[in-house]
Amino acid sequence: MFLDPKFYLRIFWTRLPIFLAMLFAAMLAGFILIKTLPTVYRAQAILLVENSQIPTTLATSTVSTDLTEQIQIIQQRLMTRENLLDLAHKFDLYADQPDMQPDEIVESMRDRIDIYLAGGRGRVTTATISAEASSGAAAAGIVNELVTRALGQDAAFRTEVAADTLTFFKNEVARLGEELSISDKRILDFKNENVDALPETQEYRLSRQSQLQERLAQTQREISQLGEQRRRLVDLFESTGRADLVQQRPLSPEEQELRALQSELREALAVFSTTNPKVVALQNRVNRLEAELAGAATEPEDGTNPRESVFRAQLVEIDSQLNSLETLADGLEVEIGALRENIEQTPSNAITLNAMERDRDNVQIQYDTAVSRLSQAATGERIEVMSKGQRLSVIERADIPTKPAKPRRLMIAAGAVAAGLFLGAAMVLLLEFLHPKIRQPSELTKKLGITPLGTLPFVEPPRKSWGWGRRRYGVAALAMIVLALVTGLLAVDQQLLPLEQLAEKIMAHAKL
């Protein structure tokens, strides 16, 4: 069994009006769709994400937002409800729809506007902003307005972040400075309260304690010696009535003067003669002092014993020395005790002071770090104020489009023709499959189970055949004319002048 092209061609020719009707219907539907769809113009602008203009080895910005995140932040700020309503009102996009609700306007504006990021690692990063509107001027105006706001928001965002960073570190430096001052004051107060028990003076206190202990031991020895001397003096006076220890007493002023004059007299005699006036004067003074001392040593008229007076004077002198030494020893013991107490307190004070100084050093480190970062933040803020850091710049602003982006009339027309051809062919095949008549000899064998010896084709009368053929040719010619007309109108509308404007010009010319 094989296919007979002539048979199927005859079938197609028989069904040609149906095929042309489906093709015409599809093309008519496409033409109506083209004319009913609103004209949409699309404009776009391209922004470039530029890197910092200052080498990062010299100075860095304090704004470290990722590029994708930055674009997303700008996109979210541009697509806020307030901004979208402001754009719609500014360009009168929905002036012909006064009953449209704000929520519907916002949803429609979000469908009109598209912002996306292109590029990546090792490639230039760009951001494209596009918008659709019923006129090219409105589309370009929306895009340029979005570009202006994007640049402003980018600069404001980066400047705001840099300023916030600078303010933060200023506050941090001030706070740490106050903590540092409080720590210094606390350490100073502690040292003033424990000035006698600080670890840095521990060595001096230990040396002082050793010196005082030696001096106390010496004082105690002197006290012991004076006590022994007093006891022997008393024993000697009680047993013999003598006070030989008087030689050990200190010389009186008169005795000291006498000894000085005697020494001066000996020196004068070594130089001058005995008749020299100076020698004579010194000799007279020495004699007079000796006479006075001799008279003071004689027994007084009241009958008192001069030895007993000397003895008692020596006792008073020894007792006075003992009192002085005991007072000195008591003072030394008090000072040694205070030093011992301070020495015992020094280790605990050292621990406390070390903890306070450690806290102060930690605050100092934080303060120094904050000051360094404050300097960096000030540099970064200056970079952003002068727009020398990473920023958005315009590569291409939106121009007013001259051709609409939607609908794509040629694509719709081509789709309508393709759909008409497919539907026509499908309808022809469907009708043929549903036709109950037997048309081929093979169908006799298949349906009746017989094998014919021969077949005779059905031949229509010449007159009838000629009339039906003329109708078919007329329908085909009409369909071709309609197809050519539709195609020509579509070409004029797409390439030369929109049909609405052409109709307006024709009507204006007709009125004239």
Q: Could you name the key traits of this structure?
A:
512 residues, mainly alpha, Alpha-Beta Plaits, rod-shaped, 71% helix, 14 helices, four-stranded antiparallel sheet, 3 domains
Main pleated-sheet profile: 4 strands, antiparallel
Shape call = rod-shaped
What structural class results from the helix and strand content? Answer: mainly alpha
Q: What percentage of the residues does DSSP assign to strands (E)?
A: 5-15%
Q: How many domains, as an integer? A: 3
The total count of helices amounts to 14
Radius of gyration: 64 Å
The low-confidence runs, each spanning 5 or more residues with pLDDT under 50, are: 245-249, 297-303, 463-468
From the N-terminal CA to the C-terminal CA, the straight-line distance is 70 Å
**Helix proportion:** over 70%
Order of helices and strands: HHEHHHEEHHHHHEHHHH
Structural overview:
This protein is mainly alpha-helical and 512 residues long. The chain has three domains: 5-35 and 409-511, no CATH class; 41-174 and 375-396, EIF_2_alpha (Alpha-Beta Plaits), CATH 3.30.70.1130; 199-373. It has a four-stranded antiparallel beta sheet. The chain is built from 14 helices and four strands. Helix 2 (16-36) runs parallel beside helix 13 and helix 4 packs across helix 5 (102-112). The model is unreliable at 245-249, 297-303 and 463-468 (pLDDT under 50). The chain is 71% helix and 6% strand. The protein is rod-shaped.
